Every structure is written in structure tokens, then in C-alpha cells.
Amino acid sequence: MSKILYTNVMKKNILRTLVFQVIAVILVIGVAFYFADLARGNESVQHMVSTYGFVGIFLVSVVSGFNFVIPIPAISFLPLFLESGLDYWSTIVVISMGMTTADSIAYALGNVGKKVVRGKIVEKLEKKIKILHEKYAWAPLVVLFIFATVAPLPNEVLLIPFAFLNYKFRYIIPIVLVGNIVFNVLYSQGVLSLFYLW
To answer: What is the pTM (predicted TM-score) of this model?
Structure first.
């Protein structure tokens, strides 16, 4: 009986968290669209965005790329950046580089965590994964690319375990960078379409 009660409480907590995240995302995108609309005719907003420029965009991208609580992509602010006079492709590349920097930090944290958690469980898991890796070496990397390309979730969900499993950084990061660029191009089309309907 208590197990059923516990399960129901967990479901309610998950639902509450999901509703909170959806509301937060809608609010942030609404605020981003408001400032983008404000930037259309307001030189002071345009000046503020252009003052921080690509360095500001990069920093926002790093923070948004490493956010588990409310994963709001920095690309949501693209209309604001464009209305302030910044270039589309340069902005996409800078946002993608910022997200990839956050992904690199997550990978490094995974490496540190791996050294801290070392034990029999990790060793058994590594043996099983090593067998899978020998059979299907590129399959996890393909999954990572697809995840980075289409999932509106932080890539850290996969990158931290990849670090635990000894996947080489030099193989992972180019895949994540290209995945982030594709994600941002696809997401930007939706964001811009919504903004121009706004």
C-alpha cells in the first residue's frame, strides 16, 4: 500500500516539475520576444545588445547549455539579437560554440566524477560497455549526434556518462558542435516563425 502511495506522490512531483518547466520556458520566450519587439524601434536596447555583442551571446549560451533545471536554449533570444543588428550565421555559430563549451565542462565533470566514484559497480559497467563498444563502436556517437541535433535538453545528459565510459573527448566534441549547430539552425526557424507571427 505504501509503495502505491509513494508512486503516486512521485508522479505528482514529476508532473508539478514538468508544468513549472513548461511555464518557465513560455515566460522566458515571451520575455525574449518582448525585448526583440522592443528592440525594433528602440536604439537604447539595440545599443545594449550590440555593446555586449557576441561575448554576451557566448556567455548566455554557456549558461543555457549547462542548465538542468530549466533548459532554455539561448537561440530563443535570436529575434532580439537579429533586431539589434547582429548577423544570423555569426550568432548561430557563437551560440553553438557557447553550448559546446558547456558540454566540454560537463564532460570534464564526468571525468572528475569517474575518478571519485571508482569502484566495483563502475568496473563491471565498464566491462559490459567495453564489449558493446567493440561491437558497435560508432553507435553511441550516432545517438549523441541525434540527441544534440533534435533533443531540447542539455547534452550533459549523455556527455557525463560518455566521460564515465572513457569515450575520447576529441571524438565527442566535434560531433556535439555539429549537432549544436544543426539544432540551433532548426530551432531558429521555429523561433523566428513564432516571432514574426507575434
So the answer is: 0.77
